[in-house]
Design brief:
The protein is an alpha+beta fold and about 750 residues long.
């Protein structure tokens, strides 16, 4: 039969539910009941019992249970997590609250009055979060007793007898009709649990990192009495509804009022939970930020402090439960102690390190150099992955890739890698300027940073870079000279080995226009004949070639026997090494305008990226001249003039004089560097004024499109001021004009 009305023993004051409960006066009354005396208890075991009761109760509370099902549930239950002495003296308090709820509501008191009596009585001496936990425990006890009796009455005679006394058989018969009520009640219980957990989290916030006066904390504290009132009210309502089923007379039926009251309360508590969750999130952000700042400062202090050995650095930045935070060849676990007293090179990169071209070079360097100094230094790869993933997703998504790359490395790998949002990697990005391009940070045997990026110097000097410190890098630059054997170190080809020893001239050139290459090499053959010099030539590409261009030009140069040519990989290595030189110079030495070596590197990189071709003329001695390809072809047509100049000044002297005369105030040059290498105060190779810095967006290897958003850094120099306006400048202009006119006349004569 269907139930039509609530039992008279359960009364709900509808006016109290629907009108005035948000009134400030009511909340003040709730706040006035709060008189904590320091009484406390551990929340965790109590919440554990409460959650287990609600978790093990089926949605309709009275589902008939078989003996086998009971045995299975008992086996699955986590009995070890609940001890009989878990609650201690709280059991009496919980039982007392449950009795108060039953007696008061059975006597006709509405849920609001009962809630206020509990808050001003038994619960008044407890903290806010403990009030709601105790009220929930009382509701859970009634809930569990009712459900357990109804479920076991079919298989247990004792349970059946108790069920008869409680008139449960009548309720069991109507279990399907009561489903909407049970669903509403379960939704309310879920809302109460979630909001209670939120209150407990607030009570455990570390006040060392957030002040009670913080806006989010003030807002939360204003809403806590409201939250406590509605949770206790909901606990009373749910307990009354459960107990009410056992006291029903046969002729009374449950109306929709109970279902409506549960739904209303669930909506109310969920609303409060949403507000508290938002405030909790704000508080946690504040706490995390302060903890992050504190951790960062601790790490800063750690790196700034002198240590007896590097373990005081290695263990904090590579924590591990088993003391083995590294793997080698993707298999063997390696103890952190193997790094004690060693120089450690921390290689930071993303997972695309194989595409950067550095892995092959470093592997050759490591295998050739590490064997003899195995006890003095070690490399550790620290993979840095996408920070948008959480830690679990990181391990699942990138694990195979990390192991694949690690298998190709002869050195150690940090495994698992540090989380992208960890304090250590924040430090790496800020202090060591990591921006997705590989860097190699050198630490000495005491853990002190000796070089924020030793990758440049290793690329340039290889084993000569040991012990990889900035001091060693500066010392190497002090002894370096701008010679051919220095800039082509590691990229030699057979055709150029004998000329150096025989003191012949060497010409290295590059460009992406095959017609310019043909014209240039043809002109050089004429110059060699007129000047009577021996010269070997080799093609050496450009810094940032368009896709597949280098290989095509190399093939054409060799097929047509235009000149010798470096292999494509050697060309790439040459320009990469040259860029590393510039990085290294700017990292270790200041003042590009006064640094001749640095300016020579800038000049070669700038001409290489000009799109007009470039050339370097060198001999076995110290003389070396860098030329812009287009200017060279435009001006060096007067071969007769060339011959006279060479006799007077020598080949390089005549060449340099001609190039100086060809320099024009109307020029536009660019120096293209990766976005992580934006530099300032770079002098133009032509006019020596500071080049302006722009941003380019590199879409592909085909072109560079100007854009102010992001991308590669390009330092450009436009027309210079009219520095030739004085008498000296006028004389220079006259010499330049005469030189070019003589060249044009010679060209016309040769044309006839």
């Amino acid at each position: 039969m269907a139930y039509q009305k609530m039992p008279t023993s359960i009364k709900y004051n509808k006016q109290a539910l629907l009108a005035g409960l948000e009134d400030v006066a009511l909340m003040k009354n709730v706040d006035d009941t709060h008189k904590p005396d320091g009484r406390t208890f551990d929340l965790k075991p109590v919440m554990g019992v409460i959650e287990q009761i609600f978790r093990q109760t089926p949605p309709n509370m009275l589902t008939a249970t078989s003996q086998a099902a009971v045995a299975t549930e008992d086996k699955a239950a986590d009995h070890a997590s609940i001890r009989f002495d878990a609650l201690g003296g709280l059991s009496y308090t919980i039982h007392k609250i449950a009795c108060e709820i039953t007696c008061k509501c059975s006597g006709g008191t509405d849920s609001h009055a009962t809630t206020m009596e509990l808050l001003s009585g038994t619960l008044s001496v407890y903290s806010w979060e403990r009030k709601v936990v105790l009220a929930l425990a009382a509701a859970a006890m009634s809930y569990g007793e009712f459900s357990l009796t109804g479920r076991l009455c079919a298989i247990n005679s004792l349970a059946k007898s108790v069920a008869v006394l409680k008139r449960l058989p009548d309720v069991v018969e109507q279990v399907d009709a009561l489903k909407p009520k049970f669903d509403a009640l379960n939704n309310l219980i879920k809302a109460m649990l979630e909001t209670t957990r939120c209150l407990i989290e607030f009570s455990h916030l570390p006040l060392d990192y957030i002040s009670l006066d913080a806006p989010a904390m003030v807002t939360t504290q204003c809403h806590i009495p409201t939250a406590v009132y509605w949770i206790v009210n909901s606990a009373v309502t749910s307990a009354v509804q459960v107990v009410g089923q056992t006291s029903m007379r046969h002729e009374y039926h449950v109306s929709e009022a109970c279902e409506l009251s549960s739904s209303f309360l669930a909506q109310k508590v969920n609303s409060i939970h949403g507000l508290l969750s938002k405030q909790l999130e704000i508080c946690m952000q504040i706490i995390d930020e302060k903890k992050s700042v504190e951790s960062f400062r601790t790490l800063e202090h750690l790196f700034q402090t002198n240590h007896d050995d590097n373990m005081e650095i290695m263990k904090p930045i590579f924590p591990s439960k088993d003391g083995c935070p590294f793997i080698q060849s993707s298999v063997d676990k390696v103890n952190v102690e193997t790094l004690r007293w060693k120089i450690v090179l921390l290689l930071f990169s993303d997972l695309q390190i194989r595409e950067e071209g550095q892995l092959t070079f470093l592997s050759h360097f490591y295998e050739a150099f590490h064997e003899g100094l195995e006890t003095t230094f070690e490399i550790v790869w620290v993979p840095i992955v996408d920070s948008n993933d959480d830690l679990i997703n990181l391990q699942e998504k990138h694990e195979n890739t990390i192991l694949e790359v690690a298998a190709e490395m002869p050195w150690l790998t940090a495994h698992p890698p540090p989380h992208p949002n960890s304090t250590f990697l924040k430090y790496v990005r800020k202090e060591w300027k990591f921006e997705n391009k590989p860097i190699l940070v050198a630490l000495d045997g005491q853990g002190k940073v000796t070089n924020p990026n030793a990758l440049y110097m290793i690329n340039i000097w290889e084993d000569g870079a040991y012990p990889f410190s900035t001091a060693r890098e500066e010392a190497l630059w002090k002894t370096a000279t701008w010679k051919l054997d220095f800039i082509v170190h590691g990229v030699d080809i057979p055709e150029l080995r004998s000329p150096i020893g025989e003191k012949k001239q060497i010409c290295l050139y590059g460009g992406e226009d095959i017609e310019w290459i043909r014209s240039f090499t043809s002109k050089m053959k004429e110059i060699k004949k007129v000047a009577g010099i021996s010269m070997e030539m080799a093609y050496l590409g450009v810094p940032h070639p368009r896709a597949s261009t280098t290989k095509k030009i190399v093939d054409t140069v060799l097929r047509e026997k235009i000149s010798a040519s470096y292999p494509s990989e050697s060309i790439r290595f040459f320009w990469t090494r040259l860029e590393r030189m510039l990085h290294s110079l700017m990292q270790s030495r200041k003042g590009p305008e006064t640094d001749g070596l640095q300016q020579e590197v800038i000049t070669l990189l700038t001409y290489g990226d000009s799109g007009r071709g470039w050339a370097v003329f060198a001999s076995a001695g110290d003389e070396m001249v860098v030329a812009d390809g287009k200017a060279f072809l435009h001006g060096f047509t007067n071969l007769g003039y060339w011959k006279d100049e060479i006799i007077e000044k020598g080949f390089h002297g005549a060449l340099q004089t001609g190039l100086d005369l060809l320099k024009s105030p109307d020029h536009c040059l660019k120096l293209v560097l990766p976005s992580s290498s934006i530099v300032h105060h770079v002098a133009c190779p032509e006019c020596r004024k500071n080049m302006k810095t722009y941003l380019l967006l590199k879409c592909c290897d085909e072109e560079l499109v100007p854009n102010t958003a992001a991308g590669a850094a390009a330092a450009t120099a436009g027309p210079a001021p009219d520095v030739d306006s004085g008498p000296v400048g006028q004389k220079r202009k006259q010499d330049q004009k005469a030189y070019i006119m003589a060249g044009e006349k010679e060209a016309r004569l040769l044309g006839r």
